[in-house]
Request: fold
Amino acid sequence: MSSHKFLLHEAQDDVGVAVADIKAGEEVMGVDIHSGKEFHVKSNEDIQLGHKIALKGKKKGETLIKYGENVGKVTEDIKVGDWVHTHNLKTARWDYGN
Reply:
C-alpha cells in the first residue's frame, strides 16, 4: 500500500470514496481529509473510481452516512470492505416518501 485509494470526508461517515480503482481482495489505505488519520480496509469486491467502500458494517434498514449526511437506507446487509452502490443502498436524494 503505497498511496491512498479512498478518502473519508467526515469523521462520522460510514463509507470512503475511491480515488482510484480498487480490486477485490486488495488491502487499501484511505485518509480522513480533515484529520489526516489513515484507515486500512480489505476490499471484498472490485470498486471503481468515485464509488463507495464500506468502512463500517451496516444492517438492512439502517441509515448510511456520507459527507456527514444521511444519503439513504441500506437495502441489504453491508460488510466492511463492500462496494456500496444502488444494489445495496436506496438513495435519500430522490425519496419523496414513496
Q: What stands out?
A: The radius of gyration is 13 Å. The chain has a mean pLDDT of 93. The beta strands are 4-8, 15-18, 27-32, 38-42, 52-54, 63-66, 69-74, 83-84, 89-91.
